Amino acid sequence: MAKPLIIGIASIPVILAVLIAVPMITNPQIPFSATNADDKISIEYTKQHLKKISLGVTERITPQRTEILTISSEGAVSYFVTLDGIPQPEKTSAVGRDDIKKLIALFKETGFTQIPSDSIPPRADVSEYGRFSLKITLNGNTKQIQWVEQNATSAFVPPIFTALESAMHNVTKKAFSN
What we know:
Layout: H1 2-26, E1 41-55, E2 58-72, E3 76-83, E4 86-87, E5 91-94, H2 97-109, E6 128-138, E7 141-148, H3 159-175
Antiparallel strand pairs: 1-2, 1-6, 2-3, 3-4, 3-5, 6-7
Helix pairs in contact: 1-2, 1-3
């Protein structure tokens, strides 16, 4: 009885963060109160599709596909893909200053820096899953979080992680839609 109550109480801050993040992601208006002209940001987002391979007595987790997206304060975007251990050609592009301001506002307004750094591990019985990592350096302060897909873990994956994943996907789509 106490466990559902604790989960319910613990989910309140997450729900509030989502209520703040969703309008920021969907709203084209940039909340200028959250950004400063001298804000410097560096973002590294990694998405991996992992597969557990049995080697008889031991098991090994091998990345089938790895995608790395990096974004700088100046709007430079780099996208690296590795398929089965073979690196593909790097793609580079750029996004506008308004997009960078929107990302900065998203990280400031949602309390990203206050999220615990504990990674969310997969269940032992899962053989294939996606793992995500987001490393943000904002004005010299670095924060990194790691999580797996919700269906690959028994732990609660906060909705803010999904919102951040969606924001990174949108930047990738916008930068490389040519």
